[in-house]
Amino acid sequence: MNREIPIVEYRYEEIYPSFKAGTDEKRITSDILHRFLRRALPADPGRSAPIRVADVGSGPCDTILGYLESVDTPQGFVIRATDIGDDYAAPDGIAMRTLAAAQRAGQIRIVDFAVSEDDSFAGKLASLVSAQGERAGHGRFDLVVASHMFYHADSPAGVETLLGDAADNLLAARGILLMCHAAAPPGTFSYLRARYGRHSTRLDQSDTPAVNVGDPPRVTRDYFARRRLPLCEIAFSARLELPGLSDADWRDFAHPECYAEIVKRSPEAAENLRRLLFVTERAPLEFAADRSERGLVAYLAAACKVIESNHGSLPLAEWIQIGFRPGADPEFVTMVRGAAAAATPAS
What does the alpha-carbon distance between residue 226 and residue 228 come to, in Å, rounded to a whole number? Predict the structure, then answer.
């Protein structure tokens, strides 16, 4: 049965699967990180403790499982995840169910896991990534992951709060902060998101925080440079496929009252519409009522031009950035840099 497309509100958990099904970004990222993490996260000889992982802005936790599945560690993993979304991070939420299922199936060796719900940009990550009854997670994590969530900080200052919190308070002596996100050069996914996404919390018909940070790689790079902390980077390109769109589809997309009919008439067009809505994360009725240069009609015109010029796809300019705690061992930093260089795709 075809899923309806809500028009009164934007519901991330109902739209995101269409994006994931239409992009190669997750596959390419996972391929790179498999190569990187196999080199950067080897267990120390004689180590008995599990590798401790904090997944910040975890969503359903399927992403972190995909990143870790090729890391061969006999000690296994302790995973602590946190997200602001109730559907994901509630005690009976999707993240808990995903991790429990992976543990049962032996997808990766999960020694223990816990999930908490709150704002990762509020400067209290150590408590958020600590299980009930466990001492706070200061300086205990071998790997801290923040994947595609910086866009939704209140401002670049919120991103910097998270960066400092993770680097100063979470990372172990030989820990790494792994960040995945897209930059915003013209004609790309994040360029459209930054220009046409929701820019005000007053537009509250969305269950997803407003798009306030248009270029997370730049904010991250500037922060690490200002603090003189080492940072290594991997750049690559990905695509969001939106094939087969007709002129009639583009016209209908401007009218949310037509969305139910689009779902019935053309499942392929409906999937493409969901992908377009994921870019901006705005409620369709609110978006259509905005007649400004940031409204739905203007967005569709801009998106159509980019997608047609790219033969039915929307480019993503992706970055993986790897940061360290203050005072990190230079030899460890050099080793991680080498792992990043070895994992970088050939241009």
Answer: 6
Strand arrangement, sheet containing 110-117: 110-117, 77-83, 51-56, 141-147, 171-183, 313-323, 231-241
Q: What radius of gyration, in Å, describes the C-alpha atoms of the chain?
A: 20
Return the bridge partners of 315, or none.
Answer: 239
Residues of the chain with pLDDT under 50: 1
Does residue 145 contact residue 178 with C-beta atoms inside 8 Å? yes
Written as one letter, the residue type at 191 is Y
Q: What is the pTM of this model?
A: 0.90
Q: What is the amino acid identity at position 259?
A: Y
CATH number assigned to the domain covering 24-182+209-237+318-343: 3.40.50.150
In eight-state DSSP terms, residue 176 is E
CA distance 254 to 300: 7
Contact between 262 and 269 under an 8 Å Cβ cutoff? The reply is: yes
Give the pLDDT confidence score for residue 19 in this predicted structure: 96
Residue 141: phi and psi, rounded to 5, are -105, 130
Q: How is residue 144 written in tokens?
A: 């801290």
Give the integer Cα–Cα distance in Å for 151 and 20.
17
What residues have CB less than 8 Å from 100, skipping those under 6 apart? 113
Continuous H helices in 197-291: 216-226, 247-253, 259-265, 267-280, 284-289
Please name the amino acid found at residue 69.
E
pLDDT computed for residue 2 by the predictor: 65
Q: Angle at the Cα of 341 (from 336 to 342), degrees rounded to 5?
A: 95
Task: Kindly list the domain boundaries of the chain, sorted by start residue.
Answer: 24-182+209-237+318-343
Select from 131, 65, 55 the least CA-distant residue to 104.
65
- Residue that the structure tokens 């050069």 belong to: 185
Q: Using an 8 Å Cβ cutoff, are 283 and 205 in contact?
A: yes
CA distance 88 to 60: 5
Say how far residue 89 (Cα) sits from the centre of its chain: 15
C-beta of residue 78 within 8 angstroms of C-beta of residue 111:
yes
